[in-house]
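Dissemination and training. As part of the outreach component of the grant, students in the summer workshop were shown how a complex can be specified as a set of sequence lines and then modelled as a single object. The example used during the hands-on session is reproduced here so that future cohorts can follow it. Participants entered these lines:
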Amino acid sequence: MTTGIILSVQALKIQFDNRSVIQNLSFEVDDGDNVAIIGPNGAGKTVLLKALLGLVPYEGEVRWSPGVRLGYVPQKIAADRQMPIRVHDLLAAKAHVLKLHPRSIDAVATMVGLTPEVLNASIGVISGGQFQKALIAFALLGEPSVLLFDEPTASLDELAEERVYELVERLQQEQHLTVLLVSHDLSIVYRAANKVLCVSKDKVCFGPPREVLTPATLEAMYSAPPKFFLHRHGEEPEQQLKAAEHV
Amino acid sequence: MSEPGTVYSIILAFLFAVAAGLVGSFALMKRMILAADVISHVALPGLGLAFLWHFNPLLGGGATLFLGTLLIWQLQKNESFSTEVAIGVVFAGSVAIGAALTPKEDLVDAFFGKFEPISGVTFVIGVLAVALIVYFIFRCKSALILNLFSPELAAATGIKLNRLNLLFLLAFSLTVLIGLRFMGALLAGALIIIPAATGRRLANSIGFFLLASSLVSVLAVGLGFMVNTYVLRSLSLAPTIVMVSALIFCLSLIRPRA
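and obtained this result:
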């Protein structure tokens, strides 16, 4: 699957009002990677994604390989959901800005499973899960090669959350996407990611989940020990990690 | 009524109504209603100077409007400063300076407008200005929608937000300037706000919202003219139009929100 480096981050430093959020972060992402970004609240995961998108000022280097198209699913949208905007209006607006064929809207709607009813519904009346799907469809417009997800399930119940993750995994396989995903859910990280980037004040680590997600790392990162974390052969990773979820 | 100047003036009033409905729809969604009122009030000091020194009121009003627009644009960018506070200060300050500068006999016209015939040149400039506003709204409709929904997603889509916000404010000020002549500095903003508020109650999609706001605005001006011509002849035109649009808004409350 790996065909080359798609993103190279060197000595990244982000500051807000003289408060350092990210210090000296370096990592590389290969084409087709599924990178999970984990870390405690306030560690700068969202800010990191925004820096990768060029939405916040930073020092250091963020280099995407030429021709990469980015799709972004934010954690939450501060928009007034009472606005008379239908899901279709939103997708059509992006398609228009990017000069895409109107048919591309139907394509992404089918991809994520947005029904015509939801497309024609106002953004204020659809459920949290449908809203999330709409945001994913929005990110997929323009055929991005990389998707950046910021906790795509933060406001969903468990069932809807599971469906969104399944959708992300399916899209990654079908569309051959590179995915950068901020997540709190370590079982998802373990199952879906092939690389984990930990972001926290004291500890930064990067590598495959099995190497990175050790009790010691988690303890150092979250400043609290996971309740238990045993690695036994022949047991499903989910089972092992259950107790360490949502640390 | 059949003088060309009067006909020009009536046509321009209707064209202003269309522009006001379109711009007002986005202003309402951008939650710029307070700012909207202030922008029209900022014209007052300029109008006052124009009346005092006898030059074209639209030039004076336009000059201070333009400066006010740039000021509000800067305030919008500066997150550490409370826009509401600034708006409160600019609003009161503008009205006070305008009232102090304007000769007493012109004060009512500056505040509430005066319907009078216009020259062919003013008419052509007005028509071009409306065309420019309508072109901007439809050309940038998608970018405006994305910016409303999420500035972050809009920026990630490659939209230059700063430029878009400035262009929108300029379109807004230009709309106010067209209405300033017959609506006055205090009421020009009202025809941008009230029909949009009515359209919002009737619409559940962006296209219908823009259409409904413009139609309500045109209806308010049309009915305002009729009431003023046939019923309440002693009233000024602008207050009649605003009262009619407020009445249409009240009627829209009867219908459950779309």
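Chain A has two domains: 5-68+145-244, 80-143. Students were then asked to discuss how this feature might be tested experimentally.
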